[in-house]
Amino acid sequence: MESSIDRLQHLNSATPGEAEQELLKCCGSRNWAQQMVAARQYRSLEELIASAERLWWSLEPRDWLEAFHSHPKIGEQKAAAETAAEAQQWSVAEQSGIRNSAQQTLAELAKLNREYEEKFGYIFIVCATGKSSEEMLAILRQRLTNEPGEELRIAAAEQAPGPRPWQAAGP
User: Fold this and answer.
1) Are residue 67 and residue 133 in the same domain, yes or no?
2) Average pLDDT of the chain?
3) Cα–chain center distance at 73
4) Does some domain include residue 171?
5) Is the pLDDT of residue 100 over 80?
6) Does residue 71 have an active-site annotation?
7) Per the residue annotation, which of 24, 55, 71, 131 is the catalytic one?
């Protein structure tokens, strides 16, 4: 099993194209991945994460939307954009809280996912790790009440690397 130091060394020594493909597994924004490649050499995992977060918040909304496109909808396993098998496995693991959900809950998630996408123009993005389907459904209901500009910022924060806004000071 490869350690985080080994993976960091691999990222630092990879060709630009290889490094970009590895980074796209984590975030589907090509602009973000290209900027991350250009910012190499990373001396530590902390430096990599700090750079990832700083670059994420420097992106334009269209870059965030591109990244959102590489995520499956909550309750689904396939993203709209082509993604690496490894990224798909991460999404399945992240959404493990909905595996044994009641059919009614899954149906409500699907319905509200459609409403969200119709209202905002992109899929509902939430850090699903450790959340049950009922928790995600409650979050989705609440976020449907947001204004579009506010919601885009919240969705971007859910996708962002590093600490979540409620865990530490914002960007």
Assistant:
1) yes
2) 83
3) 11
4) no
5) no
6) yes
7) 71
Q: How far apart are CA 144 and CA 162, in angstroms?
A: 25
Question: Cis ω on the peptide bond leading into residue 41 (within 30° of 0)?
Answer: yes
- Asked, for residue 144, whether it belongs to a domain, the answer is yes
Number of domains in the chain: 2
Closest CA to 2 of 69, 86, 80: 86
SS3 content of the chain, % helix, strand, coil (to 5): 60, 0, 35
SS3 112: helix
87 vs 136: which has the higher pLDDT? 136
**Which domain, by its residues, includes 3?**
1-59
Q: Which of 52-56, 73-77, 93-97 has the lowest mean pLDDT?
A: 93-97
Pair (73, 141) in one structural domain = yes
pTM, two decimal places: 0.77
Least confident of 39-53, 98-112, 138-152: 98-112
The closest of 110, 102, 88 to 134, measured between CA atoms, is 102
